[in-house]
Amino acid sequence: MKRIGMLTSGGDCQALNATMRGVVKGLCNTYKNVEIYGFLEGYKGLIRNNYKLLKAEDFSGILTKGGTILGSSRQPFKLMGVPTEDGINKVKAMKETYKKLKLDCLVVLGGNGSQKTANLLSEEGLNVIGLPKTIDNDLWGTDMTFGFQSAVDIATAAIDCIHTTAASHNRVFIVEIMGHKVGHITLHAGIAGGADVILLPEIPYDIKSVCKALDKRSEQGKGFSIIAVAEGAISKEDAALPKKKRKEKIANRPYPSVAYEIADQIKDSCGCEVRVAVPGHTQRGGGPDAYDRVLSSRFGAYAAGLIKDEKYGRLVVLKDNDVTDIPLEESAGKLKYVSPDDSIVQNARALGISFGDE
Ligand code: F6P
């Protein structure tokens, strides 16, 4: 008999269910009796001992289902040392739940912050395995997270739809894509959707360079342009500010988001007609694409193998197309950014895509 705790933590994404299904299928192939304690709403469920006792059958038919059958919530790592409103010591409570239910292992499906907490619990002596979730693909140590490709597909489809209407009306369109700190989705969807300008948090832009790229398109007789902007795109001017000032300036910006600010600046400088489209949380919605179904199934099966081998304190990752594992502590606290030196950025520049920086 194996008693496995499982939770999905942080912002949801496609393939959370597919990954849990992979774990459970892998376990059921090895063990006759498996009990899954599915904690509800992420770490909240583990803190409050709030769970559903699930059987293998509960994981049937969910390969293609979006969201998470367990629910999710954000429980910031930096607040793990702060008691809940009703005075519960979170870390102590999580350990108590684990011990009370006599779990053999806790499987955490989560992104950067959630894996930091997974590492903390591992350091506290629990058997923990992490699975790399996030549409942002910013988890350090893995080439790919599940959810990313599905989100890229949705963001690309949004740019595709904008393309036709932008061309009909000879407009500049800004499509704002998810990613506050990192621009992987914007970079990939921007290239896939044929964007003319791509603005990322990692490559600060100068609005004059953006306008230069738009003018160049007009000179070439192109009546419309598409700009893919990450939520966290930042101007060179703002990037040069001290962190506190920068945060204040961005928080007090008189626009709903960066895309609207850039739209106004382009209208002022280039005098062209500009529209903004924000696909928002649709990028996290719906079921996983085929790539994510395969990736998450592989990740899940691999995690089951780690449980069988009693190899804990590990994060399952994809490296050079192989599924493998690294210590949780190796990834904890680090983000995987787009580097301006990445070959994909160089390839995009070679295609004539502007990053608004030169
Ligand atoms: O972590 C993924 C992410 O989708 C980011 O790209 C996005 O900025 C953020 O979550 C939005 O999350 P929420 O609205 O759920 O707080």
Key descriptive features of the protein:
358 residues, alpha/beta, Rossmann fold, 2 domains, 4-stranded parallel β-sheet, 13 helices, 16% strand, binds 6-O-phosphono-beta-D-fructofuranose
How would you describe this structure to a colleague?
It is elongated and about 70 Å long. The protein folds into two domains: 2-147 and 288-331, Rossmann fold (3-Layer(aba) Sandwich), CATH 3.40.50.450; 149-284, 3-Layer(aba) Sandwich (Rossmann fold), CATH 3.40.50.460. It is 40% helix and 16% strand. The protein has a seven-stranded mixed β-sheet, with helices on both faces. Helix 7 (207-219) links the parallel strand 7 and strand 8 (225-230). With 358 residues, it is an alpha/beta fold. It has helices at residues 16-30, 43-47, 90-100, 112-123, 148-169, 184-192, 207-219, 236-239, 243-251, 258-270, 290-308, 328-331, 343-350; strands at residues 2-8, 34-39, 51-54, 105-110, 128-132, 172-177, 197-199, 225-230, 274-277, 314-319, 322-327. Residues 11, 111, 134-136, 178-180, 231, 284 line the site of 6-O-phosphono-beta-D-fructofuranose.
Secondary structure topology:
Layout: E1 2-8, H1 16-30, E2 34-39, H2 43-47, E3 51-54, H3 90-100, E4 105-110, H4 112-123, E5 128-132, H5 148-169, E6 172-177, H6 184-192, E7 197-199, H7 207-219, E8 225-230, H8 236-239, H9 243-251, H10 258-270, E9 274-277, H11 290-308, E10 314-319, E11 322-327, H12 328-331, H13 343-350
Parallel strand pairs: 1-2, 1-4, 4-5, 5-10, 6-8, 6-9, 7-8
Antiparallel strand pairs: 2-3, 10-11
This protein binds 6-O-phosphono-beta-D-fructofuranose.
